[in-house]
Hints:
six-stranded mixed sheet
Amino acid sequence: MNADQREGIRENAKYLRNVRPIDPEEISEYVESQPHPAVVRQILREEALSLGLVEREDGTFEPVSDEPIQLSTPFRGVEAFPAEYGHLLEDLLAERFGPNWHEGESGGQLRETIRKLKADYFRNNPVEYDDLAALGYAIYHLSDNYAVVQYVLHELAEAGLLDRKLRILDVGAGVGGPALGIHDYLPEHALVDYHAVEPSAAADVFDHMLSDARPNFHTELHRETAEEFTPESGEGDENKPFDLILFANVLNELDDPESVVMRYLDSLADDGSLLAVEPADRETSIGLRRVERAVADEAEFQRKLDEAARGSESTSDPGGANEREATSNPERDSGEFVNADVQFSYALLRPDGERRVEFTADPDRSAKMAEMERHVTQRIDLVAVKLSHNLAADEDGRNPLFKVSDGSESVDHFAVLTNETALNSDLRTADYGDLLHFEQVLVLWNDDEEAYNLVVDEDTVVDRIPV
């Protein structure tokens, strides 16, 4: 199709959009040489972002609504990873290793890859994502990344901060878990311009997983690093700011995350949101808060790999040089490759000053964390936001530990629940982001962690503050 015909389709669509739904068959009659309706439909899909059009189920097009997203049914969380995405991932695995990818040598390689990824991640070692590592990461993390982003996105939607026309930048997009989660959370008539930045072999998995995205969810993949990519390197509406910039499980892998986030803030719309998500372990949770201050269900493909580990008699050495007897330790094998937990830390930053909680504590009744040094070994009252799930959940014998903040501090503060009572149980049961009032909490300095511990014991009262 030549440029004149394309422009003819655009001009007719601009006219009809203000009159009635745009029917490709009708437009084909008005354009020189009367191109086939299927050709017109394809052109309208390609031009949908610039024209602001969404495709309807009946094959016609209409202008995207200017109203914020309002969900027709309540969001009840993510109960399961969609089977169709599991099948897409298994297609990749079967293409790479054959239909019995979870067994024998390939299954052993994948399990060793996942073990190494987990070990490197928790030791803060650099990770190189070749094709094997990308597939291992997808097996273990695709489903939880899919879920996590929906919980955070829902917070924006509840506050009326998500428009139906969205330009999204996913920095360090990985294998596509967050993209799939956003795709499924947003209504079908949302018009999404989704840019994914991913330099590694994970980009190939992303491309495959998003291959069946609905017509109104437009994706563009940029195979560059977060440090190298600039929004101007995209095509089309490259000068428009982004409504949502997402860093999902990537800041902990950057050499200088603060400067990278600051640079991307320049590409955020005035009423947009920058979302940073990290796992809820203590190390990454602390790192996420540093960045924030600097800039102001189980899946079948996991079960297959896990069960094959327990049923196999031998697995391959990760280097491919040796064979060894499979371990018979059920504590190691059972569930080792099944990741059904949805635990995360996140930060939402907005240039317009919109706040999740509008609250000012009484300085005469609540201590400020910025002045905590003067209160060490004393019992005090204070107000703080709960900023993590239990960071000691996987460590036997440790008291529950929660990151808390009042926004004034430059040193980390953790609430330690040493003796739970009916009067302080709100610390454990409160949701991420809830505002809490602490009464008679004991302040201690932790030399090992260079942080303040707020000890919540039988003498402490913790109450949620309704906002």
